[in-house]
Amino acid sequence: VQLQASGGGLVQSGGSLRLSCAISGFTVGYYAIGWFRQVPGKEREAVLCISRHFEDTYYADSAKGRFSVSSDNAKNVVYLQMNGLKPDDTAVYYCTTDRGFSEARVCRNGGDIWGQGTLVTVSS
Fold it and tell me: What is the pLDDT, as a whole number, of residue 104?
């Protein structure tokens, strides 16, 4: 099981980015997927979490109204669409899953599998 996050970059405040989490070893929806972010020197924080089979989506307060999630089952990819980006959104973004089917674990602290991060920088 592997995850690979990509799509980060430099964007101006108010702009948009779409991050990708490419999945290998299981099909989209089989496990819950979480998106987290981390600023150097600070704790990693949850951004958004999708339950198995995309039944439910949970948003951090910072993501509500601005971020959304989708998937491309043919490509086995989960996307994080980020709109209205702010400088405070600058961070390394990670996707995570848990092979133990622990949705709570994925959503709160992340699971046992993490992709490498992708850096998002929002300029003011």
Answer: 87
